[in-house]
Write a structure and sequence with these properties.
About 50% of the residues lie in helices and about 10% in strands. By secondary structure, the protein is an alpha+beta fold. The chain has a single domain, classed as Glutaredoxin, CATH 3.40.30. Strands 2-1-3-4 form a four-stranded mixed β-sheet. A hairpin with a 5-residue loop joins β3 and β4. α5 crosses α9. The chain is globular. The relative contact order is 0.22. The mean pLDDT is about 95.
Length: about 200
């Protein structure tokens, strides 16, 4: 059985646009997933990337065009200029980590809930009330937001180190543990599916 390490950012529009395709691919190929939220700003700095604010205007303009095209192609509701972007992704990342550690519930749905909150619902996922609401809406105990603070903070830092060591440099980033094959971007999910079919 293949295992996928999924490095993600809870405020990444590209992770939002991935929708539930990773989960559907994993089910089809009987693969498992570990969700690894990372601090994207630190990941960019550690691997030669640039945070959005520091990119050249031509890159910023192209990003907006691509986001618009992909959202329309995938038929996903999408706010190109969300009210709370960027925002602190650490609290929602801690919640995802703690929810996964609990061993109960659908972590993929929870991740999508946070991403949808940013890109389709104009909500601030750094806000405690929003975090609790997204947890509850996806079948998790809202108290995880408090109970999981310590484990979340510790694992969040480890996830960054794991990402750098594994060769991840953006999000979404998918790595198949058994083969070391890496796939960067929601537009590479078909390649991931093809690869899993060969294992």
């Amino acid at each position: 059985m293949a295992h996928i390490d999924y490095y993600l950012g809870t405020i990444s529009p590209w992770c939002y646009l991935a929708g539930d395709r990773l989960e559907r691919i994993a089910r089809e190929h009987k693969a498992t997933i570990t969700y690894k939220p990372v601090d994207l700003m630190q990941l960019f700095a550690r691997t030669g990337g640039q945070k959005l604010a520091d990119r050249h205007d031509s890159r910023k303009d192209y990003r907006l065009q691509e986001l618009t095209r992909w959202a329309a192609y995938l038929k996903l509701p999408f706010n190109l200029h969300p009210a709370h972007f960027p925002t602190n992704m650490a609290p929602s990342s801690y919640a995802v980590i703690a929810a996964q550690a609990s061993g109960a519930g659908n972590v993929g749905a929870l991740v999508r809930g946070f991403l949808r909150a940013v890109w389709a619902e104009n909500r601030d996922i750094a806000d405690d009330a929003v975090i609790r609401d997204v947890l509850a809406a996806n079948g998790f105990d809202p108290a995880i937001a408090d109970k999981g603070l310590f484990i979340g903070a510790e694992q969040y830092g480890r996830n960054l180190e794991d990402a750098v060591a594994a060769g991840a440099f953006g999000a979404p980033f998918y790595i198949v543990r058994e083969t070391g094959q890496k796939f960067w971007g929601q537009d590479r999910l078909n390649f991931l599916a093809d690869h899993l079919a060969t294992i």
